[in-house]
Amino acid sequence: MGGGADRRRQGRAGAGRARGARTRRVSRGDERSEADTGPVLVTGGAGFIGCNIANRLAELGHEVLVYDALTRPGVERNLAWLKERHGEQVQAIIADIRDEDELARAAREAKAVFHMAAQVAVTTSMIDPREDFEINIRGTLNLLDAVRLKGDRTPVIFASTNKVYGDLGDLDFRLDGDKYVPMDGEIAARGIGEQRPLDFHTPYGCSKGAADQYVLDYARSFGLATAVVRMSCIYGMRQMGTEDQGWVAHFLIRALEGKTITLYGDGCQVRDILDVSNAVEAYLKAWERIDAIQGHAFNLGGGPENSVSLRELLSHIGQLTGREVDVEFSDWRAGDQRYFVADTRRIRSALGLSPAVPWKEGVARLAEWLRESRAPSAEFIAATTGVVPAGAAS
């Protein structure tokens, strides 16, 4: 998460730093030396994907350093969940990635970095493009330079976006029922590949695209062990979906609450959606195989077999909830793609990924979690993160 200037280290003093010369066995399969006993840094580690990555790393025996400004509503609950599950194994720095000195201190400790922190919404970038720039470009450059100055080739895996390919306005589509289908048969069968020219649209597309290219160039120019993951739509447990970002969870939350859902455009837009468990696997395998994939970018999504239009998803949600979803329509939003489905053959081949969770199964799982999950108490969140949730204070 990007905003906020607060800096607080959560947990025991000095926790998460490299410890002497001892070794321990972790998931990468061999005994690691003292240089490899530091924590894994997850920027934006209280966010949706970040906290799922942090959780899996901790489950595998790694110490984890979460770096997050906690500016997105609800993410303090994700941090509390991590602390409840893993205790002192997960440490947190509450700070902004624009804080160059604080970020450099965190990076100095890390044996690997998953860079998930970002301004994540196209709509927000249209309101405040300068802040979008500062978080997504300057924040990423702060991190890259901190790692470069360490001089030890600490791996950096960067969360990019399919928005780097623009609105795909040069492609022709036809309507097939409630969904757009590309006229190009190869794209319809396989999706959009990494050979697609970059075409940044909206300030968000520009900032994420520029950061994407910086990450790749630091591998080329300075020999850093970096890789880029250009994500389609990721959904799943711990997602605090809003109208601007995290739309699968947002649709489910609104439907479960019996509230109206606004569709921008005609609702026939198609996306490939991917369960967060599959995304976490991809990020961890990218770290595992960083020597082979250094300096490369990969498209990650559910692929053609998990492509669905907004209308189709709402129909399925109606079946899950037992009632028709109330929908209203509004104008298309800037930079919106009528279609994006990732060609995932390259990343699956390079990383040896498991099959993606079928989208209907994953969405049903998320709906059940949203029904059953109970937020931690305000007292527990305050005790574990030092942050009082909005509305909890008298």
TrEMBL record:
Residues 40-301 form the NAD-dependent epimerase/dehydratase domain. Residues 1-38 are annotated as: Disordered. Transmembrane segments: none annotated. Coiled coil: none annotated. It holds the Pfam family Epimerase. It comes from the Bacteria. Pathway: Bacterial outer membrane biogenesis; LPS O-antigen biosynthesis. Belongs to the NAD(P)-dependent epimerase/dehydratase family. This is SDR family NAD(P)-dependent oxidoreductase. It comes from Sphingomonas parva.
